[in-house]
User: Fold this.
Amino acid sequence: MSTAIFPEDEASLSAAISDAAGPLQILGGGTRRIGRIPGGRKLSTARLKGIVLYEPGALTLVAKTGTPVADIEKVLIAENQRLAFEPMDHRILLGTQGTPTLGGVMAANVSGPRRIQVGAARDFALGVSFVDGSGQLLKNGGRVMKNVTGYDLVKLMAGSWGTLGVLSEVALKVLPVSETQATLKIHVSSWAQAVACMSAALGTPFDVSGAATLQEADGALGVIIRVEGFEASIRYRMTELKTHLAKFGEIEEILSPWSEVKDLPSWAPLDTVWKVSVRPTDALRVIATMHEFQKDFGFKCQLDWGGGLLWLGLDAEQLGDLPACVQLHNALQGTVAQLGGHATLIKSGILREQNIFHFQPLSRAIEIVTQTLRGKFDPRGILNLGRMS
Amino acid sequence: MEMPRPNSEVLLKKAKVTAALRAILPHDAVIDNPSETRAYECDALTAYRCPPMIAVLPDTTEQVSDILKICYREGVPVVPRGSGTSLAGGALPTADCVILGVAKMNQVLETDYENRLIRVQSGRTNLSVSGAVEEEDFFYAPDPSSQLACAIAGNIAMNSGGAHCLKYGVTTNNLLGVTMVMMDGEIVEIGGGYLDASGLDILGVICGSEGQLGVVTEATLRILPKPEGARPVMIAFDSNEVAGACVADIIKAGVLPVAIEFMDRPIIEICENFAKAGYPECEALLIVEVEGSEAEIQDQLDRICTIAQKHSPVELRQSQSDTESAAIWLGRKSAFGAVGQVADYMCLDGTIPVSALPEVLRRIKELSEHYGLRVGNVFHAGDGNMHPLIMFDANKEGDLELCEAMGADVLRLCVEVGGCLTGEHGVGIEKRDLMGDQYSADDLEIQMAVKDVFDPSWLLNPAKVFPLSVSETRRAS
Assistant:
């Protein structure tokens, strides 16, 4: 087993890739062990560190991809700014060690609850530098807010899980931290009511920045709605939202539950966890599929993004036998394929070694485009092979 | 501006291709008479004109697929066209091409308020997307200034922005999915009513690809509830530097206006003469607009005014009513028309880091003196998206070339200070030959490799985006 490679600058990253004799497993901090973990020699960006440029007045920060997310957040908060897309920290859920990095966030396009209002990680990436599978250092985009010069490979690189190239530097749009925030909790009677309540909230002009569900241990279901901004504005919008949402159930104001929603710490003991993206109202069809397969054992569910994001999970007692789990997994992806969307196995648990698709299978035409693109970016086929399969 | 020489073999096939297109399309959807194809000879970059060989106006995705199959089989270049409002020559034909116009494809296919999305055919105009959801108090956020005329197809091709994108983002941030026809006629679905991609973000690279990867025929767009109200404040300064510093301070203070527009003295004077909006005598004018309930608007405007006062403005005028808001916007909204009254002009859209604003304005002024051409600057200051309007006389020999040379220098300046050639209009033919100033040969090569994946024979809008010398071997094959 060869030792891992830790390039300290772009030139040595480039050399490491062009000199590679075989497949490489690309890592940032190694905290997001999602998808099929490829074989090959480990190549980590963890030592490509440092903030290259930060202009608070231009809402722009440029950093090397091995820079810990925490370091970036610390620098930003000193200027009262933040990464508005609220990237999830996967460590507790997945039980991983290490330090989440900017490169990992971008390579996996990781966003949190505020994605529903401000966009995903990919929407905040202004420019990238990366080394492709031949060892060439390339760049795309820049560091300005608006840029349509040539093709937008920034979006293509974001969420490509290191399969097209290894990100070395990312320019980010950052946003001011809100003066204050507040959260309403509405006690609802069913998942259908939960989705309807979130749709109603997001359909108001009150600039909701989070719409998710929280389920108590006794099964009681609550919808949580977040607003952020200046104090006077928050008071006004909370009052209006209470009026608009009163018909869905009892309403109370609660302390911020959003780190629970974002990082799912209480889901740490679960064996198997899926993340599903569909139209919010289609969430009910996905839940119906879960009910059908898990009617005897139950399952855990949390909605976010107004219902457009479902977290689904099984603990040890909810797990059926292995064939049943494989069947459930395939049924989930089948339902989602019909509805339009994607179901990704985030924590593979019992399904780790199974012959399944961790990522939602693509249509034939898009699969061909995807494979041909990979062939262009990584002609030798050495970067994170099969990670997104 | 050089365009590739038409392919004589393709020109010889005109009758054959026309007949094949007639066989699959309604009679009036195929235009081959030179007196009628002339209607498609240019887009809004009117300095360059070339009638296409044939123009087709399909109604459905299936017809688009059939058209592309014929063109693919016969090796005929295809130039997709929305409403033809590109300022970059994105829809400029070549003499041997088929113009594929989607203007007749303007239907709303689905409105879904619960999930806050709309699905439309791509020929629908930008403003009429908002129009379709207005009765439920929703709107489609990207608002390019041509929004009355421009098509969603073109918005997707150029990843169009607008005055309000500081808060709402540009097209790519509001696009959920497309139905696209590949050059070989295959119809593909990318994205849909859900968020984020299941695999690679193909949608992200389609958006902004200037019609070179496929023909988008349908789009799923995010719609948003309309804010309760909006009101601007106008702030006048006696120097560009101070106005620039004020913009940075507003942004740093955590107020996020929906728009921050910046006008410099030449533009203020031209607009004032034209529109009589009552703008004060000053060097730089900011229009800052905020949204929300009445109380929220007042609170934010107060914060902005407090910041502005620290920079000793010449004048500060808060709108107190819709009439006053309209008056503040009047000059800005008539800027392009007003400049058009006094001269021919070229509108650039290079984008710069906001911090470089004073330096760039100073150096544009120097270039203006050097070339002897007047320049007015009006732009989206919050995001650094410049709009220098270089004025020239199209009837004066050599003036267009002089203007283009100056434009190129301005764009190189934008790149030099850390910005880019184009923030929202696209590259088209206009900035094609400057791409080497922003990107290395390898950076361009990987972009062209992406086109190879979607359109290996380089038939879709082939002479755009990349310098002709760089794309030559691909186009020739």
Remarks:
- The CA atoms of residues 55 and 99 of chain B lie 5 Å apart.
- Residues 343-434 of chain B form a domain with the Alpha-Beta Plaits fold (CATH 3.30.70.2740).
